[in-house]
Design goal:
α3 (about 65-80) packs parallel to α4. β4, α4 (about 105-135) and β5 (about 135-140) form a beta-alpha-beta unit. Strands 3-2-1-4-5-6-7 form a seven-stranded parallel sheet, with helices on both faces. The chain is an alpha/beta fold and about 300 residues long. Helices cover about 45% and strands about 10% of the residues. The protein has one domain: 3-Layer(aba) Sandwich (Rossmann fold), CATH 3.40.50. The chain is built from eight helices and seven strands; from the N terminus they run βαβαβαβαβαβααβα. The chain starts with 7 loop residues before the first strand and ends in a 39-residue tail after the last helix.
Amino acid sequence: MEELAGRVAVITGAASGIGLAMAQRFARDGMKLVLADIERPALEQAGEALSRNGTEVLTLPTDVSLEADVTALAATTLETFGDVHLVCNNAGVGSRGLPIAELPLLDFEWVLAVNLFGVIHGMRAFLPHLRATGVGHIVNTASMSGLYNLPRMGPYNASKAAVVALSETLRFELAAEGSEVGVSVLCPGWVRTNISMSDRNRQERFAYALDTDQMAQVAVHKARRREYLRTVATDPTHVADQVCEAVKTNRFYVFTHPAHVPIFVERARRILAGEDPVEPPELADEVVVRSEERPVGGSRDRPAQLPKEGAP
């Protein structure tokens, strides 16, 4: 979808972080925007700021974990603009940083409801229109955690791996029917966002209390991640630029941090060799793999990609 000006983009999780950066990037290309988020004040502020710069913006408070909310988002978008061309299923939350054995079921339900079913609801709500027109693109936000797994992130890892799988499946299915609708899966590494403070938007039906020991574990986990976000994370605008390029060129995998790709390559090698998994490093520059296993061509401006065909 090379030409974006005048077309309509829907972005969930658009009030902050990567979602807001994508909104700002697509606004510069002249797109009309539908911004959806559960955080109402921040959503209103984002919409007002973009409107002041001349962008046509519709803001819709949306809980992507609820099918009815996302169905209404699609209906209102089409009622307002008469069309939709780009759907960014981006809303997401982080899990609390406890071991799987100690996590309440409610945490699994919350993370999967937002990160996975939010994407499912978005695809199901907008695909009928996109398939009917044969024009458009879907961007599903996953993570490098969808390709390799760190401890204390069980629900998050599972949700993001599922988003990668669903995105690949959708791409195959659209290609099989001859559709021109494109699909991309965004797999960022460390990005400066508010995801470490996801609990601020936890819905009441997913709320639960932590005991004293769990609170201490979570505090340590979150503090370490906030430090990474402060010191090594990239700016969301860099991610948004790559997403925009992927939409225009119909690129499927969007790996924003080339240094993380060798970790996945090493994991794939171990799987194919029948070796036990090894815990990956939290920071990509800690990984060492054989030179012949490193992806080539990666840079900050053009991220490394695994081959689209024949890849492990």
